[in-house]
Amino acid sequence: MAPATDTEALIALATRDIERRDAEILLGAAWNLSRGALLARAGEPVPDDVAARFKAWCARRAAGEPVAYLLGRREFWSMEFDVNAAVLVPRPETELLVERVLELVTADQAQVADLGTGSGAIAIALAHERPRWRVVGTDLSDEALRVARRNGARLVADRVEWRAGDWYQALESRRFDALASNPPYIEENDPVLASDGLRHEPRGALTPGGDGLAALATLINGSPEHLEPGGWLFLEHGATQGATLRGALVARGFTHVTSHRDLAGHERVTEGQWPQR
Hints:
Rossmann fold, seven-stranded mixed beta sheet
């Protein structure tokens, strides 16, 4: 990036390679200013150290690295989460999963598990909204759990129990009123995996390989051993996978099987209730 000394010149140069909004966010963060405060300084000289940090971030963003990884944080459920390359960047559509759990699990005290928790976003959002619930977050990745623990300590005062293990292995013989998961579900050969941002996120958290259904099938098939009678299973999934999941849940014995659409109109979350005895 060529030399520039003022706010507008720096942003204009950056927007040759990245979106203007990203450039404004990155320059504000490099200068420790909100986006609004930055825009109010249009035309002002930028300190050399701020400009150097901004240019380095812009080069990484132009190479596809997500803004969230550059800044080390991402907002989810009106809370700011620490993130790094060990975890997926929390996305707005995953808030639908949180909403569905809160809608259907109405008990003041309940036991809920978030499987494949990553940054801990789902588990922490649930613990934040329902302080008397006992929430467990699990992940196979020790690095991901370190991120989740930091977020849990800062955002919900360590009210989430974190457990290491592969899906239900982490739960041992415990049963829950609800199980929720945003598992890997993208097909192995889907070109979206090479798209901006995604190519820098942990591949194992994006795709299980093959047709993308393996992790979802594992979660459906194993869930009855870990649900209380009347308990719920909530799954985030790809936009074209809803019908397949509904069929799998019904075949496994679930009732009240329903899919819900995200703000873009895509089926994104499917739920089912394990029957009462």
